[in-house]
Write the structure tokens for this entry.
Amino acid sequence: MMKRKFLLSVTALALCAALLAGCGGSSSSTASSAQSTAPASSADAGSGARTAENGTVDLDAIVSQLLETNPISNQFEIAAMNIEYDFGLAAEDVTAYKGVRSNDNGDAGLVLVIQPAAGKSEAICEQLQTYKQDQVAFYGNYAEFGQAQSNVENAVISGRDNLVVMVIASNESTGDISGAVDSVMDQYAQ
């Protein structure tokens, strides 16, 4: 009987520990995730919620416009954890974001649009340059990924007060990436 109570107690403690671990995490990261994924929701996409009313730009429209020039195969949507861990951006520096990258080996294709927090545009551009250099080094380790390395070396990063854009040509892209980014910046950025 004593052994049975002990096992039940241990099991109950293990379940409590599992529940608490699942509820953990930093509040800034959670708040940032909620803000960052808001533009990607289907309710926002159809309602045009990213309007001048709240001083933001339509990130969905920008990404769509850039994807017309730079079609990306096997798209993988960029998530909050990618913003922080892959790109090395501080959650508090990013007000909103939207982007996709290729999920194909050897294709570095990327379209990333970021609405920076006030005064953080330059810092975000610098960190994206670091990401670019890291990717060039990564693809440089594999001879079979020569095209991807070249595409990353020619990535376009552009930033203004309210908008930062990074585009890496996909292996399938034949359009003018620089011209597409310039057009987006002229149309949406301040």
Observations:
- Residues 24-55 have pLDDT under 50 and may be disordered.
- The CA atoms of residues 66 and 75 lie 14 Å apart.
